[in-house]
Amino acid sequence: MKVGGKRTADRVDAVIGQIYDAAGAADQWPVVIKSLCELVEAKSGVIWFKELASDRVPLFLTYNQDPRAPSLYAQYFHRHDVWFNAAADKPVGYVTNGEDLISWQDLTRTEFYNDFLKHFDCDRIGTVRLVKSDRWISHCSLFRPGRRDSFEDDKLRLLATLTPHLRRAVTLHLRLASIDGEHRIAEATLDAMALGVVVLDRAGHPVFVNRSGQQILQRRDGLQLDHKGLSCLCHTETAQLRQKLQAAAEIVDGHPQNGSLMLVVSRRSATSHYILTIAPLRGAAFDRLGGTGTAAIFIADPDRAPETPHDFFVRLYTLTPAEARLAEALANGATLDDLATRFGVQKVTLRSQLQQVFRKTGTSRQADLAVLVHRDLSPQFRLQI
């Protein structure tokens, strides 16, 4: 599609480069949206994702938007978005402006306009549907205030030129985010265990060690890593460990061919011993996570105290300690007013922290956050060994 003169074509090429950079780096999306706004003379813009199963809008990528707007939209107004509802049957890649979806006169009579759009200078919209799947719908929407005209045809053509690239990049972004999320959940779950976990490759070298395992190995008190892989203080126990790892690699129908895959390992500094359980790693789920290991060793240390739920919460959602403290307090019934006094901080600071907690946990309301804390986290620790 022809996009105008050389200067415009060069700007479009530059934006395309930014789009593909953002596919693998989420912090680059605001740069992309800013460039789109400049290209079509919009004041602000957003790329948002709606999760169909939960009817939630958990992710906003924005440029030059009032920070209150995404939160209000996610909490309430996405259900009353007359533009979105009018475009419900439009195909992926469809580019349009707001007045092709609903007339200006009809728009200005709606709750969506009077209680939301006009307060944030989002009266005019140029929008494109980027994703429509069984799980997600995603749009890129660019906005002008009401004193400006609707988006001109040449501006919409520029957006249409960029749409295939936006679609590919956003789809790739979702796939990478899903893979990264699976890795993070798997690693955070293993890190939350009081058990040490060491995953070994076919040569007996570690490809993953969880937090507890790292602490155990750093002490070099009965178990250690050397150029041959994992070894024990006692040479006899090391030989037994090698035999059991070999047995795990030769597992048939879920049963070892030569005895138990457990081993008691002596220590220098304690009367209690490490108890090792060796498990073969098999299956599509492990392969999908990029697994290269053939066996996992679970190390029980009777002297180790279990990790606290607070520390687990911090790591699982990459929260700061302050954000985790706020989330737990709100989940237990505290209010922002209470916590401002208790923590000795401004209420506006707590609101900012809460928005970060919502973003990182994929929630949008305090009630949802409380459910996540009590339902999804507490059982992990009741079952912790």
Would you give an account of this structure?
This protein has helices at 6-23, 29-40, 68-75, 82-86, 98-101, 104-107, 111-115, 153-191, 211-219, 235-249, 284-288, 309-316, 321-331, 336-343, 347-361, 366-382, and strands spanning 44-51, 56-63, 95-97, 124-132, 136-144, 196-200, 206-209, 223-226, 229-232, 262-265, 274-280, 295-300. It has 16 helices and 12 strands. The strands form 3 sheets. A 5-stranded antiparallel beta sheet has the order 2-1-5-4-3, with helices on both faces. Strands 7-6-12-11-10 form a 5-stranded antiparallel beta sheet. Helix 12 packs across helix 13 (321-331) and helix 13 crosses helix 16 (366-382). It folds into 3 domains: 6-180, GAF domain (Beta-Lactamase); 195-300, 2-Layer Sandwich (Beta-Lactamase), CATH 3.30.450.20; 309-382, Arc Repressor Mutant, subunit A, CATH 1.10.10. A hairpin with a 4-residue loop joins strand 1 (44-51) and strand 2. By secondary structure, the protein is of the alpha+beta class. Residues 379-385 have low confidence and may be disordered.
